[in-house]
Every structure is written in C-alpha cells, then in structure tokens.
Write a structure and sequence with these properties.
By secondary structure, this protein is mainly α. The protein is about 50% helix and about 0% strand. The protein has helices at about 10-15, 25-45. Helix 1 crosses helix 2 (about 25-45). It is elongated, with a radius of gyration of 14 Å.
Length: about 60
C-alpha cells in the first residue's frame, strides 16, 4: 500500500471539513503530524485476510 504524502493544504482541508476553521499554525502542524502517523499505522495493518464483517463497530476513519 502506497502511503499518501500530506501537506499543509491537505491538513487545512481536513480541518475545514471537520469544522476546525480556527486552528493556529501550531495546531495545524499537529493535525498534519497526526494524519501522517495514522497513515503509517494504517499501512502496517494486515487487512488482506479481513472481510467487512471483521471490522469492529467502534473503529472509525477520518475522511
């Protein structure tokens, strides 16, 4: 799975979609870092053998 390269524009777009339109530059950097970490962790999961029924109901994914 190829990891997506996020930039500040992507982080701002996500923040706006989540209603976080008053983030400071520092908070935007924290969101960008969280997006990158989430992507790394998601890429390490073995999902080839899973079906949709195997996904726990309490797991959510940001847009």
């Amino acid at each position: 799975m190829e990891m997506k390269r996020y930039d500040e524009a992507e982080a701002r777009k996500l923040a706006d979609a989540l209603g976080l339109d008053k983030l400071t530059e520092k908070h935007l950097q924290q969101l960008l870092n969280a997006m990158r970490v989430a992507d790394v962790r998601r890429s390490l999961l073995d999902t080839d053998s899973l079906s949709p029924a195997d996904e726990s109901a309490h797991l959510f994914r940001l847009p």
